Amino acid sequence: MTTERRYDIDWLRVIAIGLLLIYHIAVIFQPWALFIRFIKSEDSLENLWTPMTMLNVWRIPFLFYVSGMGLYFAMRKRNWKALLLERSKRILLPFVFGFFAICPLHVYIFQDYYNMPLSYYPSRGHLWFLGNIFAYVVLLSPLFFYLKKHNQGHFKKVLTKWMSNAVGPLSVSIFFVLEVVLVQPTLFEMYALTWHGFFIGLLAFFFGFLFVYSGITFWHTVTKWKWFYITLAAFLFALRHTGFGNISSLSLTAIESNCWIFGIFGLGYQYLNKPSAILSYLSQAAYPVYIIHMFVLYACSWVILPLNLNPWIQFIGVTGFTFLICYLIYEFILIRIPILRPVFGLKWSLKTKHQDNQIPEKEVKPHSI
User: Fold this and answer.
1) Is the dihedral of CA 169, 171, 172, 177 positive or negative?
2) What is the pTM of this model?
3) What is the DSSP string of 212-237?
4) What does the pLDDT read at residue 223?
């Protein structure tokens, strides 16, 4: 298996998690936020949701694709026992810790904001994603190790050839269409704690692995055809946004989702596949920030929303303070207290902060989320 370092995948993962934070903050300013147990602003910004409706059909499948790609890199120098141990440390441990210690924090804040009785409520919350990822690792690792063993086999050659044209990557959308036809989700973007979210994540994780496994051909294809994918995605989004967002159009939405993702992969490979000190820092920070961001944005909302401010000022304030406080918690607590590092997805280390950020390039590997 190739050992080429893929900076673009790291960059895309960082960007996707940043967009996830903005998406969750935007939910606070929607009239239906309370129905999904988000703190709700009294002043809605419904126009803000238009770009979010474009984002929400590909943001989570994209992260599952990237996670499947991350598993490919994690398998390069590990057998199945070492892989399962490593994924347990990096995925299962933060998930279990978050279930009992992190997700209850934003539940407390929600209860206090609405003057509800305070109660301890362990929950998967936004960390459902990690639970799914670990399940996929357990389910698919036997197949992936078989493919790794037969890296020069007939399947690899056929897959590589199939990925050499624009139809190759796009053809996997057939499986995503079948998923929505069989599962019939109420909304395509209802991923959290649903069978739709589980199966669409399983497909994206599986094909993410296969895309990297197929070799450089896939990346050349999505780079060459990136504007075709993005144009098709934009056309399908326009259809959906102008009145085709009902159940009968979920198949089109599945295709739209993949077109956005393949276009973004092409842009990333062309423009982002280069090292930088900023990337090294952000790549390590993205995972723990993902874990803590919900209780931070709830806390910021608890402080800012009661103020008599313009809703756009509130949105900017919640966004700015959420990113700032996540940075401060990461920079001055999570990476400096060794016992906290593993439960937030960081490697156990007794190094100083400066030493920790100077990881040799050859040792840095794409994370799984």
Assistant:
1) positive
2) 0.91
3) HHT-HHHHHHHHHTHHHHHHHHHHHH
4) 97
Distance CA 206, CA 69 (A): 9
What one-character DSSP code corresponds to residue 79? -
- What values do phi and psi take at 72, rounded to 5? -55, -50
> What's the CA gap between 343 and 334, in Å, rounded?
9
Type of residue numbered 369: I
Question: Interhelix angle for 277-304 vs 311-329, to 10°?
Answer: 130
* Distance from chain centroid for Cα 150: 29
Q: Provide the 10 A C-beta neighbour count for residue 78.
A: 15
What does the block give as tokens for 29?
Answer: 């300013």
Cα dihedral 194, 53, 290, 21 sign:
negative
Q: Which of 62, 69, 73, 59 is nearest to 26 (CA)?
A: 59
H helices within the chain, ranges in order?
7-27, 49-55, 59-74, 80-87, 93-97, 103-113, 128-149, 154-162, 167-170, 173-183, 195-213, 216-224, 226-241, 250-271, 277-304, 311-329, 353-356
Both structure tokens of 64: 């599952």
Q: Whole-angstrom Cα distance, residue 252 to residue 225?
A: 19
At residue 350, the pLDDT reads: 53
Name the token pair of 154: 């007939």
Q: Cα(98)–Cα(103) distance, rounded to whole angstroms? A: 6
What is the SS3 assignment for 89?
Answer: helix
- The dihedral through the CA atoms of 77, 80, 82, 84 has a sign that is positive
Along the chain (369 residues), what's the average pLDDT of each consecutive run of 10 residues? 74 95 96 93 90 94 96 91 94 97 96 95 95 97 94 92 96 97 92 96 98 95 98 93 67 96 97 93 96 97 94 96 97 95 86 45 46
Please provide the DSSP assignment of 27-49 as one string. HTTSTTGGGGT----SS--GGGH
Chain-centre distance for alpha carbon 287: 10
The whole-number pLDDT of residue 242 equals: 82
CA of 188: how far to CAs of 124, 135, 176, 224, in Å? 21, 21, 11, 28
Distance CA 175, CA 201 (A): 12
